[in-house]
Amino acid sequence: MNIVIFVITVAVVVRFCATQELELALEEERRAAEELRSQLTVLERKRIALQTELEDVRGLLEAVSV
Fold it and tell me: In terms of pLDDT, which residue wins out, 50 or 17?
C-alpha cells in the first residue's frame, strides 16, 4: 500500500515539475514575443518615415522636372 502511495506521489511531483517548466517556457516565449512586437513597431515607424521621405523626394524631383 505504501509503495502505491509513493508511486502516485512521485507521479504527481513529476507532473507538477513538468507543468512548472512548461509555464516558465511559456512565460519566456511571451516575453520574446513582446520584444519582437516592440521591435516590429520601431521598424514600422522607420519604414513609414522612409516612405514619407521618399514621397517628398519624388515630389521635389517632379517639381524640378516640370
Answer: 50
Three cell numbers, residue 22: 512548461
What amino acid is encoded at 12 in this protein? V
Cell numbers found for residue 15: 507532473
The C-alpha atoms of residue 43 and residue 50 are separated, in whole angstroms, by 10
pLDDT at 57: 97
pLDDT tens per residue, range 22-56: 999 999 999 999 999 999 999 999 999 999 999 99
**What span, in angstroms and rounded, lies between the C-alpha atoms of 19 and 10?**
14
Give the three-class secondary structure for 66. coil
What Å distances lie between residue 66 and 9, 42, 51, 60, 63, CA to CA? 84, 36, 23, 10, 5
